[in-house]
Amino acid sequence: MGILVLVGAGPGDPDLITLKGLNAIKKADVILYDALIDKRLLEYAAEKCEKIFVGKRGYQKSLSQERINEMCVEYCKSNNYVVRLKGGDPFVFGRGHEEVEYAALFGIESKVIPGLSSITSLSTLQGVPLTRRNITSGFTVVTAVNKDVDLTDELINGIKSDLTLVVLMGLKKLGRICDLYKVRNKMELPVMIIQNGSLPNEKCVTGTIETIEQKVIDKNVSSPAIMIIGKVVGVKQTEREVLNGQ
């Protein structure tokens, strides 16, 4: 049997992968890679390495998770060092544990190399703290929709909280999310939306619950994007005002 190594590639910029993750890529016989990884990382693989795209994207036709699980096992059975290269961190909304669990059913050893998650790294790159003393004591991270393509209970509960809310895969539900905040009279709450974070084609739009929908349209922002909602987003604007002597 070979070995399955799940590697977190980070939020996008290939320089943000860990050294341990990069070393795993160099050792790989086979790399099964996702849609959101930067393909420049594949250039570090050995010449003999087989590189196979297995990426999934929301609302698009793609391989099922079940088929990806099977492919991991099939290549490991041929005594390969198999790297499963995933965006962000494999165990954060990445279904990495499902792949490890499936491989274990066949007696295949797995290792996991963490990666920087877009949840925390992209806000940091924008200079926005997810927590800030005297503003908020924590943050909540949610996906926008459940398997029935409806807003998750966790998202709805997060909107009721004063904690920073980080929403993944939520751009298509932006209107409904804003409506729920408006019902709570939070029209002036700051919002930041980051598309293709950390990459050269990154777009970052900042507004409020009242203005963000139009700004997204004006800037032609689309998925993949991460949404940060909360008073901490306003810290960035305050910083600009201080630098400008306002």
- Arithmetic mean of pLDDT: 93
Basic shape: elongated
- Give the number of domains: 2
Radius of gyration: 20 Å
Give, in order, the helices and strands: EHEEHEHEHEHEHEEHEH
Structural class by helix and strand composition: alpha/beta
Biggest beta sheet attributes: 5 strands, parallel
The residue fraction in helices comes out at: 25-40%
Uncertain regions spanning at least 5 consecutive residues:
none
Number of strands: 10
The helix tally amounts to 8
Report on the architecture of this protein.
The chain contains eight helices and ten strands. 30% of the residues lie in helices and 21% in strands. The protein has two domains: 3-113, Cobalt-precorrin-4 Transmethylase, domain 1, CATH 3.40.1010; 118-242, Tetrapyrrole methylase, C-terminal domain (Methyltransferase, Cobalt-precorrin-4 Transmethylase, Domain 2), CATH 3.30.950.10. With 246 residues, the chain is α/β, with parallel strands linked by helices. The chain has helices at 19-27, 65-77, 96-104, 118-125, 153-160, 174-183, 212-218, 233-243, and strands spanning 3-8, 30-33, 50-53, 81-86, 109-113, 139-143, 164-168, 190-195, 203-208, 225-229.
Descriptors:
single chain, about 250 residues, alpha/beta, Cobalt-precorrin-4 Transmethylase, domain 1, Methyltransferase, Cobalt-precorrin-4 Transmethylase, Domain 2, 2 domains, five-stranded parallel β-sheet, five-stranded mixed β-sheet, 8 helices, elongated
Quick recap:
The chain has 246 residues and is an alpha/beta fold. The chain has helices at residues 19-27, 65-77, 96-104, 118-125, 153-160, 174-183, 212-218, 233-243; strands at residues 3-8, 30-33, 50-53, 81-86, 109-113, 139-143, 164-168, 190-195, 203-208, 225-229.
